[in-house]
């Protein structure tokens, strides 16, 4: 059922103060999960990003592509291997990762954004030495056993983000779309976790917001109810008591690092919800779980927003 004109007008009026707040600000969006595979959600996401640009926000998209990489590796008869949640990336796998992320997934996202009316440009971390990386060193420590050193191959971590190209494109009216592939000082290519790249980009840009699209509503309490907002200190407490566990741990750690490096706030939100980006930024309650350095104490409404002082 279509919403009534009254409901639509009320929503537009609710959006107005937040459009003003975010005008001229940078919002980094990590695009992944179900939102990248469902046709309706892909179109909605593209329209959301185009809308942000039209109202004066500077969106920057960082995307994943794990399922697409796995599918291509299977077609080529290359086994997918994982250790501690990371894809073991030998030279042959790295070639496929770069081909899929940069040559296929990135260009599909750019095409969707352009079809929605935005002017999108696809990048990888190699362009303009955008993402400078180093090989990830992983050591797994276990009780009553010596530490295990795991060689993940061409898996990297971000050392530095050069924002020159991103800022130039944004100022010229383009939407940068970044594939999470980095390069070291010798020109060696690395596969990097997309959440980590998005967090590093948001921190380097001193972004107003980092939005991480996932396939869950956000951070859930032991009763499986959404926790609307948490501070960094509260997040560490949720690590200790087991409320934040499994795959949510590295995501929240990325959020914390992004805030510590200059991003104002981060939200973990459900990419399965149509128009989740606009709902988070431009409505009073927002959606998902917002992470911040500390709770604000009054003043003008902050997008996210009624939950901020809860």
Secondary-structure blueprint:
Elements: H1 5-22, E1 26-31, H2 39-54, E2 58-63, H3 66-75, E3 82-83, E4 86-87, H4 91-115, E5 120-124, E6 131-135, E7 138-140, E8 148-150, E9 156-161, H5 164-171, E10 175-179, E11 181-183, E12 189-191, H6 194-205, E13 209-214, E14 229-231, H7 232-240, H8 248-260, E15 265-270, H9 276-282, E16 289-292
Structure description:
Helices cover 38% and strands 22% of the residues. It is an alpha/beta fold and 310 residues long. It has one domain: Carbamate kinase. The strands form five sheets. The chain has an eight-stranded mixed sheet with strand order 5-10-2-1-13-15-16-14, with helices on both faces. Strands 3-4 form a two-stranded antiparallel ribbon. Helix 2 crosses helix 4 (91-115) and helix 6 packs parallel to helix 8 (248-260).
Structural key phrases:
9 helices, 22% strand, globular, 310 residues, 8-stranded mixed β-sheet, 16 strands, alpha/beta, single chain, Carbamate kinase
How would you summarize this macromolecular structure in one to three sentences?
This protein is of the alpha/beta class and 310 residues long. It has 9 helices and 16 strands.
């Amino acid at each position: 059922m279509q919403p009534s004109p009254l409901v639509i007008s009320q929503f537009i009026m609710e959006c107005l103060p937040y459009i003003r707040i975010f005008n001229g600000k940078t919002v980094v969006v990590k695009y992944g999960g179900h939102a990248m595979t469902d046709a309706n959600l892909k179109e909605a996401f593209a329209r959301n990003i185009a809308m942000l640009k039209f109202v004066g926000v500077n969106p920057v998209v960082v995307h994943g592509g794990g399922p697409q990489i796995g599918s291509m590796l299977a077609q080529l008869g290359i086994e997918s291997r994982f250790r501690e949640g990371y894809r073991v990336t030998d030279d042959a796998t790295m070639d496929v990762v770069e081909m899929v992320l940069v040559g296929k997934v990135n260009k599909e996202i750019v095409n969707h954004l352009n079809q929605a009316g935005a002017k999108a440009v696809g990048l990888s971390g190699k362009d303009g030495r955008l993402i400078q990386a180093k090989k990830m060193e992983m050591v797994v420590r276990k009780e009553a056993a010596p530490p295990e050193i795991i060689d993940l191959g061409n898996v990297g971590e971000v050392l530095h983000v050069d924002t020159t190209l991103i800022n130039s494109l944004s100022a010229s009216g383009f939407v940068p779309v970044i594939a999470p592939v980095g390069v070291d000082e010798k020109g060696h290519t690395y596969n990097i976790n997309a959440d980590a790249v998005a967090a590093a980009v948001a921190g380097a840009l001193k972004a107003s917001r980092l939005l991480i699209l996932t396939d869950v509503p956000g951070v859930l309490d032991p009763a499986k109810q959404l926790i609307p907002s948490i501070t960094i200190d509260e997040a560490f407490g949720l690590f200790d008591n087991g409320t934040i566990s499994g795959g949510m741990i590295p995501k929240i750690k990325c959020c914390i690092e992004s805030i510590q490096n200059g991003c104002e706030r981060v939200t973990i939100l459900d990419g399965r919800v149509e128009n989740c980006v606009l709902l988070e930024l431009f409505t009073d309650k927002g959606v998902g779980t917002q992470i911040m350095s500390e709770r604000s104490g009054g003043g003008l409404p902050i997008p996210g927003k009624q939950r901020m002082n809860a």
